[in-house]
């Protein structure tokens, strides 16, 4: 199995590898597990930037299977985002090349123990988690590092069904974690259908559509969105890109009503071009001080 990308692809794609079940021409299926040491080297070199799509469901595996544990641990350790197949597969998959495929193993909520074990794991649920809408919403509401793409469902489902599903995700205030996708490798005409499915969603603002088509994916992959759009981007001295951290500042009182403070030195961070979250930057700019005490208020 060849790992890595062609040289001319490096500026256009974030490379990943599909396992443990993958498709070879012409619809020939095989199981394979990449060597974790080989993956480590490819991620360290920048040759690959994504783990997956992890197609555990096709291999009859729950996300908690021991066969997958080394890969989740590697992704969490190296900060590599994960793409995880969820939901459904081609009709009659168990009779058409994937004997171990089971629908119940596509429920995104089965990922919860993995996320508890690896709290820094950054992961997106492929194919919208369809048809497990309630469980997808529940998982994403609890674990803010989980995104959900809309690949395949944006052209396979009827327009009304897709809009119903997408609107529920947006109404649950998850719109900033929904990147666009197509899952398309065979029929290029479906790419246009997928785009139109989002464009025709009257309940989405232009800002929300832009987020789905671009901003959400840039955020998930920790890319400099402004630079990709032709702007100056987050550049520091010598053109070095300063990236924002994903780690939120969580302040929780020891008991209801308790108060405390935390002091952060902003001026020194800015001078050294430290990466910090956009939320913190807004808080610092609002206070216009080199350091500030932030009250710890009760979190419900």
TrEMBL record:
SUPFAM superfamilies linked to this entry: Metallo-dependent hydrolases
A molecular-function term among this protein's GO annotations: carboxy-lyase activity
A cellular-component GO term for this protein: cytoplasm
Record Gene3D superfamilies: Metal-dependent hydrolases
Highest taxon, organism lineage: Bacteria
InterPro entries in the cross-refs: ACMSD, Amidohydro-rel, Metal_Hydrolase
Domain Amidohydrolase-related: residue ranges: 53-223
A biological process term (GO) from this entry: secondary metabolic process
Pfam families: Amidohydro_2
Keyword Ion transport: no
Keyword Transmembrane helix: no
Signal peptide stretch: none
Keywords: Hydrolase, Lyase
Official protein name in the record: Amidohydrolase
Organism for this UniProt entry: Roseovarius marisflavi
